[in-house]
């Protein structure tokens, strides 16, 4: 008896001790589920909470195939979509700075299939049929699109630094006309929808000379409905038109997109020439540089936001799965037990928009969470409603609990993981050295002008600033804040900006400005008026010579002035 008591005490003590160890290692919850990483947590939640609901109500037949481990563990993916000869393949070549296996570039429609450009130790091509049986790749569910698609799908593998952080999906160039849509042999829009749900960024490429959106391109863009936050637009070959034409082209593009992408927000458009050739028209060079850097920063941030994106996609999927369950179970409930099933089925399909409204009110669901009614009506034609499952409240409650509490645990874990080990940004290829050196954006301009000059850059215009300074009645070589304010207000800059300039220029913080400090203030006003940002702290190269702590530097600057 004593031995059994002692044994149970040891077991309880050990259990509590090991549970403490587990809490130290990762996120856990009351049900004893352990998540060592965010990826593992997402996978566990999907498998245990959401997947049973999806399988019960035939979600995979109606909407999207089941997710697999590779979907959670894959690197961020970028999908490129556009009409033929808009520079999709060239854009990938520009980012990687090397050719990839299977690449073909030309003015005619060259890329006739989907190419997944991914990292691999050895350079080579993996055909589609072999790709969809590889459990390490997130493409297994593409098997459903059949041989017509798989014969036009390859994975191009190569050792490249950019591909260590992201994968890029190249797509066939889209042509106008009905013939191409029929002759593909697979549902192009559905394949794009499949990729759109799984990628981190969708880039739509347009040519400055090809702004018309064909019917198939319009369908392709509509396939990304619900993924609006992932879409970016690139207006390529923008150097082939002058400034006036570029303004017209940009306006026409926004008008065309507004008719296809039905969102109240304006989609982000990047202008530029994304290939390693000289610019044909250099008058917008600074604009193109700024735009390309913005696009690079957006792509570089993908690894950092990958876990958050997967979490967001899982929440979207869970909401759709819940709504789908309500629709299917409602249709089952309305079916007669014996006679008149076909007639009732046709009636329910016709009444589907009304059923959506009933479910919205009954379960407090947002209209935006419901699937496309026309598509749903077409798909329901092929099913026997009497075989649909009834509403299983426990499955719904599991998903509700996941959304209410489990997701919050993973959100906290994402922040913890980023704090411990921030994900590496995309580097290599076109991303390498784009920020540093004399060819980095903004180098030698604005606040950084004069950083590598021997003289104090402000001294070049100081004789003009001195003339103004001495009209402001300096006392003991300094002017008061009141007198300085009158002159600085002539710039018409807001008081908040002028206040910041005053703090930067008043190096000794005595509430007055000497001739060098006043010249510095005027220089900072000039920088701001030219459209550049002000720093939070004054850079060393802008500190007036008389206020520097290094006597050697003072002597050097005084010598230069002499």
TrEMBL record:
Q: How does it sit in the membrane?
A: Peripheral membrane protein
GO annotations of cellular component type: plasma membrane; recycling endosome membrane
Q: From the Swiss-Prot or TrEMBL record, state where the protein is found.
A: Cell membrane; Endosome membrane
Where does the EH domain start and stop, copy by copy? 461-549
The record's Gene Ontology biological-process terms are:
endocytosis; endosomal transport
Record-annotated EF-hand domain positions: 493-528
What are the protein's GO molecular function terms? ATP binding; calcium ion binding; GTP binding
Pfam families in the record, alphabetically?
A: DUF5600, Dynamin_N, EH, EHD_N
Where does the source fall among the domains of life?
A: Eukaryota
Region Disordered: which residues? 540-562
Which InterPro entries does the UniProt record give? Answer: DUF5600, Dynamin_N, EF-hand-dom_pair, EF_Hand_1_Ca_BS, EF_hand_dom, EH_dom, EHD_N, G_DYNAMIN_dom
| Keywords of the record | ATP-binding, Calcium, Cell membrane, Endosome, GTP-binding, Membrane, Metal-binding, Nucleotide-binding, Phosphoprotein
Q: Pinpoint the Dynamin-type G domain residues.
A: 72-303
Hydrolase among keywords: no
Q: What's the protein called, per UniProt?
A: EH-domain containing 4
Provide the species name. Answer: Astatotilapia calliptera (Eastern happy)
């Amino acid at each position: 008896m004593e031995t059994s008591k002692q044994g149970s005490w040891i077991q309880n003590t050990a259990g509590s001790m090991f549970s403490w160890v587990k809490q130290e290692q990762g996120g856990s919850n009351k049900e004893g589920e352990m998540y060592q990483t965010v990826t593992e947590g997402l996978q566990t939640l999907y498998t245990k909470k959401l997947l049973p609901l999806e399988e019960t109500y035939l979600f995979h037949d109606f909407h999207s195939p089941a997710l697999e481990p590779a979907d959670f563990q894959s690197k961020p993916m970028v999908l490129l979509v556009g009409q033929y000869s808009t520079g999709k393949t060239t854009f990938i070549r520009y980012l990687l700075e090397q050719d990839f296996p299977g690449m073909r570039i030309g003015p005619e429609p060259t890329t006739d299939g989907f190419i997944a450009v991914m990292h691999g130790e050895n350079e080579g091509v993996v055909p589609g049929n072999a790709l969809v049986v590889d459990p390490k790749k997130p493409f297994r569910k593409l098997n459903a699109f059949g041989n017509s698609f798989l014969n036009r799908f390859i994975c191009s593998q190569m050792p490249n630094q950019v591909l260590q952080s992201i994968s890029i999906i190249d797509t066939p160039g889209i042509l106008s006309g009905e013939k191409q849509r029929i002759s593909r042999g697979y549902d192009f829009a559905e394949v794009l929808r499949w990729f759109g749900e799984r990628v981190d960024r969708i880039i739509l490429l347009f040519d400055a000379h090809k702004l018309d959106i064909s019917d198939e391109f319009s369908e392709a863009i509509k396939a990304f409905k619900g993924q609006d936050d992932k879409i970016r637009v690139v207006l390529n070959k923008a150097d082939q038109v002058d400034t006036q034409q570029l303004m017209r082209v940009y306006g026409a593009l926004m008008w065309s997109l507004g008719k296809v992408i039905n969102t109240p927000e304006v989609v982000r458009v990047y202008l530029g020439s994304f290939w390693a050739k000289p610019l044909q028209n250099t008058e917008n060079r600074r604009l193109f540089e700024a735009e390309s850097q913005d696009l690079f920063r957006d792509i570089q941030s993908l690894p950092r936001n990958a876990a958050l994106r997967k979490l967001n996609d899982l929440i979207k999927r869970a909401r759709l799965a819940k709504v789908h369950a309500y629709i299917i179970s409602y249709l089952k409930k309305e079916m007669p037990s014996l006679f008149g099933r076909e007639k009732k089925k046709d009636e329910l399909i016709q009444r589907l928009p009304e059923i959506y409204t009933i479910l919205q009110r009954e379960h407090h669901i947002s209209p935006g969470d419901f699937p496309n009614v026309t598509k749903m009506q077409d798909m329901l034609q092929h099913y026997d409603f009497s075989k649909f499952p009834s509403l299983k409240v426990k499955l719904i409650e599991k998903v509700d609990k996941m959304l209410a509490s489990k997701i919050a645990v993973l959100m906290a874990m994402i922040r913890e993981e980023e704090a411990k080990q921030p994900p590496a940004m995309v580097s290599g290829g076109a991303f390498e050295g784009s920020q540093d050196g004399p060819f980095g954006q903004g180098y030698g301009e604005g606040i950084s002008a004069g950083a590598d000059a021997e003289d104090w850059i402000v001294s070049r215009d100081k004789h003009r600033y001195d003339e103004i300074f001495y009209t402001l009645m300096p006392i003991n070589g300094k002017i008061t804040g009141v007198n300085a304010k009158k002159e600085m207000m002539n710039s018409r800059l807001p008081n908040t900006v002028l206040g910041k300039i005053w703090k930067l220029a008043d190096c000794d913080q005595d509430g007055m400005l000497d001739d060098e400090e006043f010249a510095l203030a005027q220089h900072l006003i000039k920088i701001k008026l030219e459209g550049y940002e002000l720093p939070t702290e004054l850079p060393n190269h802008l500190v007036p010579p008389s206020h520097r702590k290094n006597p050697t530097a003072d002597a050097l600057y005084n010598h230069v002035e002499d």
